[in-house]
Amino acid sequence: MTDALIIEHLKNSRYSRVVEGLYGAFPPIRKFIRNNSGSAEDAKDIFQDALVILYGKVRANNYEIKAPLKTYLFAVAKNCWFQELRRRNKLPATELNNEIEVEFQDNNDEGRLSQATTAFKMLGEKCRELLTLFYFRKKSFKDIAAELSFSDEAVAKNQKYRCLQKAKENFITLSQTEAYGK
């Protein structure tokens, strides 16, 4: 089944056909998660999460075919799994550059590092400070809330998510700009 047909099935709510078409993406995701402190059950959960994210993007008309769907799903699942490991405190905080990297972009690591750094610098001062406190200084959300004058930890956590999403958007925009010759 082609990616275009899978997307068409998603748009028309034909979910059983979608799962059929994308099931081939599950074995590599399962292998990745099992090799990174996860269980087969974790892999199923993460695969479902990745499908939900893909569904949301397609339904909102935010998904453009730039990579095979299976590659996209793997990248989404990988990011979801790293998020879960961080939540479980099993993954050391990694550099922001690794967090905002997109799996299916070109394989030029130096270029991606430069784009990630630029994407980070494009953020507002408060976002840069928040992400630095969280990823590099490994501060808790409680400490971040106090230091940045947020009302509580939940606000700090939500703001971190928004800042990270903005950094990802910046990174993707930079990647697309470079891919299309500026």
Number of strands: 0
- Shape designation: globular
Spell the H/E element sequence.
HHHHHHHHHH
First and last CA, distance: 34 Å
| The level-1 CATH class of the largest domain | Mainly Alpha
Q: What is the radius of gyration computed over CA atoms, rounded to a whole number of angstroms?
A: 18 Å
Number of helices: 10
Low-pLDDT parts are: 91-97, 99-108
**Annotated CATH topology of the largest domain:** Rna Polymerase Sigma Factor, Chain: A
Q: Which percent range fits the helix content?
A: over 70%
Portion of residues in beta strands equals under 5%
- Please name the CATH architecture of the largest domain: Orthogonal Bundle
Number of domain modules: 2
Mean pLDDT: 78
Largest sheet, described in full? Answer: none
Structural class: mainly alpha
Labels describing this entry:
182 residues; mainly alpha; Rna Polymerase Sigma Factor, Chain: A; Arc Repressor Mutant, subunit A; 2 domains; 10 helices
